[in-house]
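R.M. (postdoc): so does anyone remember the format we settled on? I'll just put the structure tokens first.
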């Protein structure tokens, strides 16, 4: 094999290695989405459990995400916090989070929903306040979000980071927060609330198919090299099989005249 084809083979090998790792990357993304979808489908519609049976003061394990919980107690409505830059459909706004004192003695942060931004950045939006009387809350637990490391105005958060929220309300919080499903007052009615958050996404996306495509593509470079080298080899055989043309005999002018 010529040096040119050895170089092409090296390029094909490099492409195969890159395709292998790109396939692994897509496969890991698929596995992450599949695990999240499994957590959602196994927890989302299950009977609710007491919140203190699911959450503790320690950070919530990811395996418990979207577990459905219930609790009875009162909101600390005066300690409501607004979480900035939260998307909903095609708009941005705030999520309204409020500490909730469960009758079992624990305090958990509850995300009551979303409100649209005000007309300008200096003005906070209006929203339905949390009820001040006893209420039964049902929702789903989520883990704390990463801190964005920003200094926020009083009463606002950059993310639902529970240590930062705990400092803001000056109250220890459980190790996960609750996304509100429904609130019920003693008479069975539901108080006004912000716009409910969208259900979690269970779509697995195209990552599994992309992984298989990358892995199948590992052979593409080698196939091209083999086909190209074979074609060059066959063309060389064809040239070798062609008979070389004989040169016509030279006839002297006087030989033609003698004839």
């Amino acid at each position: 094999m010529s040096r040119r084809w050895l170089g092409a083979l090296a390029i094909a090998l490099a492409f195969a290695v890159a395709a292998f790792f790109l396939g692994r990357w897509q496969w890991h993304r698929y596995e992450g989405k599949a695990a999240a979808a499994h957590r959602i489908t196994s927890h989302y519609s299950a009977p609710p459990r007491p919140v203190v049976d699911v959450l503790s003061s320690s950070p919530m394990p990811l395996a418990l995400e979207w577990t459905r919980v219930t609790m009875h107690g009162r909101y600390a409505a005066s300690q409501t916090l607004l979480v900035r830059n939260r998307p909903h459909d095609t708009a941005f706004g705030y999520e309204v989070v409020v500490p909730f004192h469960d009758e079992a003695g624990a305090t958990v942060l509850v995300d009551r929903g979303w409100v649209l931004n005000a007309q300008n950045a200096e003005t906070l939006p209006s929203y339905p306040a949390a009820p001040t009387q006893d209420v039964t809350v049902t929702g789903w637990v989520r883990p704390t979000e990463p801190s964005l490391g920003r200094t926020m105005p009083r009463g606002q958060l950059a993310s639902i980071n529970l240590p930062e929220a705990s400092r803001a309300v000056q109250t220890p919080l459980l190790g996960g927060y609750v996304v509100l499903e429904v609130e019920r007052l003693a008479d069975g009615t539901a108080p006004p609330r912000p716009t409910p958050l969208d259900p979690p996404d269970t779509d697995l996306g195209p990552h599994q198919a992309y992984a298989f495509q990358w892995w199948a593509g590992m052979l593409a470079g080698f196939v091209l090299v083999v086909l190209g080298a074979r074609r060059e080899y066959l063309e060389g055989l064809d040239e070798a099989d062609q008979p070389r043309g004989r040169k016509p005999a030279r006839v002297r002018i006087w030989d033609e005249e003698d004839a």
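R.M.: ...and that's the designed sequence above, right after the tokens. Also worth knowing: DSSP finds six helices and eight strands in the chain. Strands lie at 49-50, 68-75, 81-88, 91-102, 107-116, 135-142, 156-157, 177-185.
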